[in-house]
Amino acid sequence: MKISIENLTFYCIIGIFDFEREKEQKVILDISFKYNFKDSSNFIDYSSVVADIEAVMKEKKFKLIEEAIIYLDRFLKKNYEIKKVKIKISKPNILPNCRVSINNS
C-alpha cells in the first residue's frame, strides 16, 4: 500500500537567517511512503504520522530544510514499518515571487 499526505501545512521556526529564527513561517509538506499491508492489525495510522511530523518540525526548529528532510526520513523509518519515504518541504513565503522547495527523491 502507498500512503500520500499532501499539503500538510503549519507554521514553525525553520531557517538560518535571524528573521527566520524569530518568527514562525508557513511550511507545506508532501510525504508518501509504501508499507506492507496485511490486514487491520498492521495498518499505519496516518493521523499519527501527521501529528508526529508536525510535532518534530515544531520541536526541532531546524536551520535547514535539508536537515529536516534527513531527520524526518530517519524518524519515520524508525517509528513506523516503512522502508522508503518521499518528502518534499516547501517554504511558500520565503521569497516574494516563488515557492522554495526541497525533496529527497
From TrEMBL:
The keyword Transcription regulation does not apply. It comes from the Bacteria. The keyword Lyase applies. It catalyses: 7,8-dihydroneopterin = 6-hydroxymethyl-7,8-dihydropterin + glycolaldehyde. PANTHER family: DIHYDRONEOPTERIN ALDOLASE 1-RELATED (PTHR42844). It comes from Halarcobacter ebronensis. One of its GO terms (biological process) is folic acid biosynthetic process. This is dihydroneopterin aldolase. It is an enzyme of class 4 (lyase). It holds the Pfam family FolB. SMART domains: FolB (SM00905).
